[in-house]
Structure formats: C-alpha cells, structure tokens
Amino acid sequence: MRAHKKRVICGVLFLVVIGAATFIYLSTRPAQLPAFLVEAAVVEDPAKAKVNMAREKADGQLRDESAKAIASGDTQKVEQIYKTAVQNETEVARKIQLYVDQSAVLYAAGRVDEAIAAAKQSDTLSTDRFLVADWLSRVYEDRKDYSQSAKYYRLAAEWAHSDMNRTGMTKQQYEAEAARVESLGRQGGVE
User: How many CB atoms lie within 10 A of CB 2?
Assistant: First the structure.
C-alpha cells in the first residue's frame, strides 16, 4: 500500500512540475496568435467602422419598420420605405443591397412573388448581378422552381469574382449547386 501511495505522490509531483514548466515557458515567450485570429484582430479604420455601424443601425431600423408594416398588412408601405432608402443612397452596390434586403423582408413574411419582384428591381442598376443572383437562386430553390434556381446559380457563378461576393463560394461551387438543383428537378419531376 505504501508503494502505491509513493507512486501516486510522485505522479502528482511530476504533473505539477510539467505544468509549472509549461506555464513559465508560455509566459516568458512573446505572444503569437494564429493567423486567423491575427486577421480578425486587425482594427478597422475608426471612421469607416463608425460609418458601418451607422449603416447597420439604419438597416435594422428599415427592417423593423418594414416588418411592422407587413404585420399590419401594408406591403405598399414596405415598398415606399425601401424606395426612399434607395433614392437616398448614392452607391450602386448599396442600392442593390437595399433591394435584396427588401426582398428578404417580404420573403420572410411569405410574400414570395413580391420578394422576387423587389430583388429584380435592381436589374438595371449594374451589370454585376452577383448579389441578386445569389439571393434568387436560393429563393427559387426553396420554392422548388429548380430550373429558375439553376439559372440564378449559374448567373452567380458568372459573377463569383464580384466584390459583392461575401459568401466565399467559387464559380465551381455555384455551378455544382446549379447541377444539384437541376438533379432535384429531374428526380421530383418539378422544374
């Protein structure tokens, strides 16, 4: 029994020494963060951060106001809210984002046809169709309109290099999504 107790005590002491040595080693060397944390730790320009925060707050207010309008059955008010926001915006990419946001609000309320029409309002703003194509590919897929979904996945693939592509998906990934939904259409007989 004594020998067993001695081994346990020696084992515990060994672990304490190893733990202390590790602590001393780590506390005396310069801190090095993994690359993914270093990128995340890069501090954004304070002026740009302030603009982005204000924009996010304004977007949230638009969505909240629109959700209230939809809850009361007034989709015309949603259209007016976003029409005003788009008119007040100077950047084309931002206008497109607002149309997609309007579409998302309508879509969340089950107003799918109106959501699609809202997103398509941005068609004439830019030749870069990435954001709308990405969004509509998913809307049509959810609707089980697989041929339209595939069409928009392919359009998103054409624009995968766009600055508006925040998904990280590549052209090949979008093309694979198009093939996947086409297959769903063939399997289910729905297109």
Answer: 6
